Amino acid sequence: MKLQQLLKCLHPIIPFKGEDPEITSIENDNRKVQNGSLFICIKGYTVDGHDFASSAVKNGAAAVLAERPLDIDVPVVVVKDTNRAMAVLADAFFGQPTQQLRLIGITGTNGKTTTSHLLEKILADRGQKTGLIGTMYTKIGEKTIETKNTTPESLTLQKTFHQMVEEGVETAVMEVSSHALDLGRVHGCDYDVAVFTNLTQDHLDYHKTMEEYKRAKSLLFSQLGNSYEVGRPKFAILNADDAASAMFKRSTAAHVYTYGIEEKADLQAVNIQMTSSGTSFDLVIGQEQYRVELQLIGKFSIYNVLAALSAAVVSDVPIHEAITSIEAVKGVAGRFELVNAGQNFTVIVDYAHTPDSLENVLKTIQHFANKKVFVVVGCGGDRDRTKRPLMAQIACRYASNPIFTSDNPRSEEPMAILKEMEAGVQGEDYIVIEDRKEAIHTAIKQAEAGDVVLIAGKGHETYQQIGNVIHDFDDRLVAREAIEER
Ligand SMILES: CC(=O)N[C@H]1[C@@H](OP(=O)(O)OP(=O)(O)OC[C@H]2O[C@@H](n3ccc(=O)[nH]c3=O)[C@H](O)[C@@H]2O)O[C@H](CO)[C@@H](O)[C@@H]1O[C@H](C)C(=O)N[C@@H](C)C(=O)N[C@H](CCC(=O)O)C(=O)O
Ligand SMILES: Nc1ncnc2c1ncn2[C@@H]1O[C@H](COP(=O)(O)OP(=O)(O)OP(=O)(O)O)[C@@H](O)[C@H]1O
Ligand SMILES: N[C@H](CCC[C@H](N)C(=O)O)C(=O)O
Ligand SMILES: [Mg+2]
Question: Which of 51, 218, 327, 430 is most exposed, with minimal Cβ within 10 Å?
Answer without folding.
Answer: 51
